[in-house]
Amino acid sequence: MPEPHLTVGSQQPPKQDDKLRLYSMEYCPYAQRVRLVLNAKKIPYDTVNLNLINKPDWYFKVHPEGKVPAIDTGSEVLVESLDISDYLDEKYPDNPLYPKDPEAKKRDQELIQKISPLTGTFYKCVSKQGDKSVEDWAKEFTPHLDIFETELSARGTAYFGGDKPAMVDYMLWPWAERAGTIAIAYGQQLPFGADQFPLLRKWRKSMREDPVCSQIYHGPEKFWKVVEIKTKKMPPDYDSI
After folding, report:
1. Is residue 214's pLDDT more than 80?
2. Which one is catalytic: 28, 125, 152, 171?
């Protein structure tokens, strides 16, 4: 079971000296990125989930903007999912998630930066911003998805990391897991052609079966409830989702 989401009036839990402390929210994709990296590298950590709509006052002393994820290493607090993930990969060398070759690592980091425009389109779509049809959204998604389809084809591997998931895979996966919320929002799938994105479709299925991903998998129905809490201004009871 997920850790409860602490809210206004709660006390900050004492930190365990032998573990990293992850400040998270169970359904936040950016926090999920960090959890995937921690789990993939088998790094000991404990989790404090936060209600991001009704945040406890003490959390602003941890992160002045009140955002997640944040990692307390014992000597410093790190923020931003990509920065934390890069730090963890450098600090904990077991099961490296980036290639050893500097140029290959740079290419992976540049590819990760191209995830952001895709996620921006996803959020606009699932929250129904603008008067757009599913056909319109499919056209808007296509150039972003083409980037990753083309990259998988060029690499000739099942995963962006080769024969197993690595950093690019884990940075992209949270939105692939949430893709089904679009069909819930519109009552139908986006009308992509049957021959579009065959490698990404296969990748998504393989990632769903990866033990690191399946360990913390929730699925689109729960994520849709999170969308409704925000868009409909419903009571933010994340522990009952």
Report:
1. yes
2. 28
